[in-house]
Amino acid sequence: MFEDWDLIDASFAHQYGIRLRRDGRMPWSEFSSLLSGLTGETIFGKVVSIRSENDPDILKSFSPDQLKIRREYRARISSDLVRADPARARAMVFDFQASMKLAFK
């Protein structure tokens, strides 16, 4: 969330007319509800959509900028997993390798 704060701030202003930095504190429950309600018409909604897309046909139509957004996000998530739980990350790599060995015997 911290890396996306500028996008979230701009999206709240666009969709709700709320200036998070200027309007003061908001209860977490209200903030999280409003965050969940951001639509794809906001910059944050668009970026989340790009990051979460997995359909190969849609990915083929992505611009270089969209692919960069998706690639950078996925790299950051992978890096966060390795830092937070190295054993789980290692197990995921081994599972993937085993799957590939089975698939390409």
Looking at this protein, list some descriptive labels:
mainly alpha; extended; 105 residues; 6 helices; single chain; 0% strand
Give the biggest sheet: none
Query: Based on CA inertia axes, which overall geometry fits?
Result: extended
Strand percentage: under 5%
Q: Would you identify the regions where 5 or more consecutive residues have pLDDT less than 50? A: none
Rounded Rg: 18 Å
Alpha-carbon distance between the termini?
42 Å
Please tell me the total number of domains. Answer: 2
> How many helices does DSSP assign?
6
Average residue pLDDT: 87
Number of strands: 0
Percent in helix:
over 70%
What is the string of SSEs from the N terminus onward?
Answer: HHHHHH
Coarse structural class: mainly alpha
Sum this structure up briefly:
The protein has 105 residues and is mainly alpha-helical. Helices cover 71% and strands 0% of the residues.
Word description of this protein:
- It is a single chain.
- With 105 residues, this protein is an all-alpha fold.
- It has helices at 5-16, 28-36, 43-52, 56-60, 64-84, 86-103.
- The N and C termini lie far apart (42 Å).
SSE topology:
Layout: H1 5-16, H2 28-36, H3 43-52, H4 56-60, H5 64-84, H6 86-103
Helix pairs in contact: 3-5, 5-6
